[in-house]
Amino acid sequence: MTEQVIDKASSFQAARARLFALAYRMLGSRAEAEDVVQDVWLKWHLAATQEVQTPAAWLTTLTTRTAIDRLRHVQRERASQATGWLPEPWLDEVAPSAEELALRAAEMSYGVMLLLERLKPDERAAFVLHEAFDCDYAEIAKILERTPGACRQIVHRAKERLRRAGAPLERPDPAAHAQIVERLRCALEAQDRVGLLRLFGEAPEVVSDAYASASAPQGLPTSTATPVFATREPAVAGWIEKVTSLARHARHAEIVSVGGATCIALICEGEVVGVIDVSTGGLPSDSPKIVALRAVTSATRLQSANRALGRAAIIQLLARIQREAVVSVAVRRDFPVDVYA
Q1: pLDDT at site 43
Q2: CATH for 174-309?
Q3: Model confidence over 241-253: pLDDT tens digits?
Q4: Left if phi > 0, otherwise alpha if psi is -120 to 50, otherwise beta: which for 2?
Q5: Rounded distance between C-alpha atoms, residue 157 and residue 100, angstroms
Q6: Collapsing DSSP states into helix, strand and coil, what is residue 106?
Q7: Out of 1.10.3470, 2.60.40, 1.20.140, 3.30.60, which CATH number does the structure's domain 8-164 have?
Q8: Least confident among 161-165, 181-185, 284-288
């Protein structure tokens, strides 16, 4: 394919959503992913494309390599920080963009996204390309400049490391998962600590991001100074105290979809102030239990969530909640009530 035949702008635009989804899966940050895609566009715009046979493959290769370089840099930054780091949650939009549709096609749970931080950049690239984007080992080999056999081993090692770390590589039953998330939401809104503890397994892992939010609504508790990895019930109970406090100040806990998974958004004054994701497990004969809980409360990390959900959507949501509350009170006949008060 000659340079005259290739329409660079059209070729890039056709691949852009997939490139963005790939960069986001690699970096766990929308801003970092946008920077990578912009860098790829500039390189593509300046590149001589006489020998380019397949623009999409060329762009995928460049995006992967650029994301690997960027990941090496940000991993050093994250390792040097005294506070912890969690991936940026991506709330699914009601009217999805092209980027979100591409991301949904490459679904990967938030729990897996978190544990991908334990992989080396090359391992993460190979795992993401194979598991999320259905690339075969020959394609991955060209991108990483390895042999197909070596790439197969890289993906195998990555899976083993993730399994040992407890990554939920297999999706839970959607109905059962949604049910336990709804029970968690109800317990949070009711401030039911006993009910919350009943939802957890024997040795759950509980993780919260560590950034105190300077712009959090007044009275809203900030996140802890370090990530919390709780393995004993007293520790879980102490951390749940913080979560219930956050939910109390947030006023409302609502079900949202993050990367295709059912999660909980904590809402205060028209803003998302927290996103909670859980992994469930247990024997088939048992009721599912929460084996891991992750909470993102950093205002910076929740910016895209607020953009996706939108203030108007949140206001409508709160109005619906208020209407439902009014109706539930109005049906009571044992005391007078002004439903329009």
Answers
A1: 93
A2: 3.10.450.50
A3: 766 776 776 778 8
A4: beta
A5: 29
A6: coil
A7: 1.20.140
A8: 284-288
